[in-house]
Amino acid sequence: MINLKSKKMITLKNIIIKAMRSVSYRKTATRLGGLLNFVRFVDTKSKCFNEKFKFAVDNKISTANWSYKNNTHHINISENCIEIANTQTVRSTKESIAFYKAVIRHEIGHALYTDRSSIVGQWCSDYNIPFGLFNLFEDVRIEYKIVKDYPQFKKFMWFKYMDIEDESETASNAILIMKSKEAGTRTDGGNSKTNPLTSFVPSLKNLKNHYHYFLNGKDRGSMTTKQILKRYYMRSCHAICSLEVVEITKDFVSTFGNEMPSQYEYENIINGEVDPNFSPQKNSSKNYTKADDDGGYSNCDYSDLPLAKSSFDNADVNYSKTIANRLKPIVKNYGRNRNKLSSSGSRLHIKNAIAKMENSFRSIKSKKGKPTITMLVDYSGSMMDTIMRNGGREFICAFKRLSDSNDIKLNLIFSMDRFGYLLNDHSVDDIMAIIPNGNHEALDNNLKRFFPLVKKSDLVLLFTDGYLTGNIVNESQYRNQGIELVACCIPSKNDVANVRKYCNGYFTKTFIDQSPTSLATRVVKYAQDKQKI
Ligand SMILES: [Zn+2]
C-alpha cells in the first residue's frame, strides 16, 4: 500500500470526509445531488425518508459498517478500507474519493434494506451461521437492490477500484467475485437471455464438479457447482428481506460448509452486534504450533473447530453403532490365523511349529492383541457430502466406538487447514458435531506432525476424496519407512469416478464405497489380511 500521507497529498481522513459530503449534496435544478440526500429528502417511498444519519471515521474497524440505534443510522468508515483498493485508486485522490463513495453507498444500502432488529443476529447464532458469511449474501442483495431502485446513481464499478480475481478456490469467494463484478445488475438478476449469470462464475479451482443444492433446508439433489453458485447468488439478489438471506446462507452452508472469503472474516458484525461464535482467525490471540513442527499439538482445541450440535440426530448416532457392531467380530479375529495349525486344534507338530513358528504362535493367541489404527480425516469443504450426508460421520464414529469398547486402538486426527486435531478423548457426540469447513485438508502436514503415532500404527487410513489442495502426500516416502497409507471415501454417486481417479493418483490402495458399513468392513478385513501375511 502506498502511504498517501507521505506524498503530502490530501489525507485519507479528508478523502473520506469529502466522500461523505458528496453523498449528502443537495439536489438542484441541474444536479442530481447525492444518494443520501435523495433517499432522505427526495424519495418519499424510501425507508430512510426523513431519518437521521451520523457518519464517523473509525480506524478501529477494518472496513466500514452500519448500525441503527436510537432512531439514528450510524455509518462508520475506516481508513483501512483503502487496503482492498488497487494501486491505481490509491494513487489518485479523485479515484480514492470515488472508491469511498462506493463504500458509503454500500452502507446506505444497509440502512435502506437491512433488517434493523436483532433477529438476524439471533437466527444466525441459532443456525450456527457465521455473521461474516451472512454479510456476504446480504451485500449481494443490497447492492443489487440499490442499483435497481436508484439506477440514476449508476453501478458500483468495483472493478475500477479493486483487483478482482478470475479464479476461486472456494465457493464463498466465487460469490464474492460475482458480487464484485455486479453479476446481478448486469444480468437483470440472472434473468437476461443474452447475458447468462453463469458467465460471471469465476473458474473454480479445487472444487468438485457437483454438490448437493439446498432450497429452504431441503436437499434438491446433485447439481453442477456453477449451477449451484448461480442459484445461491440469484436467490440473494431477489431475497425480499434479511431473514430470507439467512435462509439462503443456511442452504449454502449445507452445500459448501462454513467458509467465507478472508475479508469477510472481519465482517463479523450485524447491525452493531458482534458474532458470538466466529471470531476472525487473524485476530486470534492463540498461538498455534506450525504444521511442520512435529509434536506440540496440544494447543489446538476442539472448540476451535466449526461445530453444529444440531446437525445430527439419534438416528445418525445409532447408525454408527450398527456399523461398529458389524466390525466387532472381524476385529476380534485380528491377528489370529486360520491356517491348518490353528484349526487342527490342540496338537502341534514340532516340525511345523519350527518351520512356521510365528504362525503357530499367533494361532493360539493373538500376538498383537488389538490393532492400532490411525485415521486422518480430511475435513475440507469438498468432504461436505461425504461427511454429512453419505455416512462419513457414522463411518468415523464406528471406529471411535470400537476404540471406546477397547476392540481397537484408534488415533483419530482431523486434518483441516494448517491444524491437526487429535480427538482421541472426545465422545461420539462431539465428533458428530464437527462440520467440514472450506479450507485446506493439509494431509501431508498432519501426517508429518503426528508421525510418531503414524509410525506405530498397523493401519493408516486417510479418509479423503483425494481433492488435495496442495500439500500432496508423497506416498513412497512413507512406504520406504514401512508405512502403508490406505485411502478411503464414501463419495456421492456423481463423484465416484473422480474420487477414484484422484485417490488412485496419490495412493496405491484405495477403497471407494457408497455404503459406510461396507467400506468399514472392507477396510478392517484388509487390515486383518495384511496381518496374516
Ligand atoms: Zn455490507
Walkthrough of the structure:
The protein has four domains: 8-113, no CATH class; 116-280, no CATH class; 302-334 and 370-532, Rossmann fold, CATH 3.40.50.410; 337-369, no CATH class. It is 43% helix and 14% strand. The chain is built from 23 helices and 15 strands. Strands 12-11-10-13-14-15 form a six-stranded mixed β-sheet, sandwiched between helices. A three-stranded mixed β-sheet has the order 1-3-2, with helices on one face. A hairpin with a 2-residue loop joins strand 6 and strand 7. Helix 6 (131-149) packs across helix 11, helix 8 crosses helix 10 and helix 12 (314-332) packs across helix 17. The chain is elongated. The termini are far apart. Residues 281-299, 338-349 and 356-367 have low confidence and may be disordered. It binds zinc ion (ZN). Zinc ion binds at residues 106, 110, 135, 139.
* Shape, principal axes of CA atoms: elongated
Low-confidence stretches: 281-299, 338-349, 356-367
Q: Report the end-to-end length measured between terminal Cα atoms.
A: 63 Å
Q: Which ligands occur here?
A: zinc ion
Helix/strand-derived class? Answer: alpha/beta
Give a count of the beta strands, DSSP E runs of length 2 or more: 15
Rg over CA atoms: 28 Å
Name of the level-1 CATH class of the largest domain: Alpha Beta
